[in-house]
Amino acid sequence: MADPNAGNRSLTKFFAGRNVPCPNCGYNLRDQRTGRCPECGRVPEMWQFRVSPALGEIIASVIALGTGLAINAVLMVGAILGAGMNGRAATSALLVFIILLIQGTGLILLMFSGVRQWVGTLSPAARLGMVAGAWLLGGGGAVAFLVWL
């Protein structure tokens, strides 16, 4: 016969030493021994604590923007040092600098703000569009720079 308290034991192990919000009311369930939320009284189930479904898309977007940021920074330094800052190289460096600002802002928003929670509310198609946009911005800046130069 199955142990009826097995679920509570695994929940209390899961809560031990972790800051885990109740999926119903948000109360911190850290070190709860009963498996029941003292705030709302609900007994959460383990599946409710799975990783955010948007985490993969956020990671892909961060990689795209971070890679684009690094490539464009190298291209900008190369344009400044290699071309002697003639008119076209100066314009190219300015273009890449603006792209760097946009990519850096997007990267900061994805990593350090409440945008992560907002992304989780988007539909899968919208999250895919966000990733595609991040990759276009990440690689598009380098392509635009090389075409312009």
What can you tell me about this protein's structure?
This protein is mainly alpha-helical. It has 2 domains: 1-50, no CATH class; 55-148, no CATH class. The protein is 64% helix and 0% strand. The protein contains 5 helices and no strands. Helix 2 (55-82) packs antiparallel against helix 3 (87-112) and helix 3 (87-112) runs antiparallel to helix 5 (124-148). The model is unreliable at 1-5 (pLDDT under 50).
Chain-wise SSE layout:
Layout: H1 6-15, H2 55-82, H3 87-112, H4 115-120, H5 124-148
Helix pairs in contact: 2-3, 2-5, 3-5
Order of helices and strands: HHHHH
| Strand coverage percent | under 5%
Number of DSSP E strands: 0
Helix segment count?
5
Question: Percent helix among the residues?
Answer: 55-70%
Shape: elongated
Characterize this entry briefly.
The protein is mainly alpha-helical. Helix content is 64%, strand content 0%.
Q: Which features does this protein show?
A:
149 residues; mainly alpha; 2 domains; 5 helices; elongated
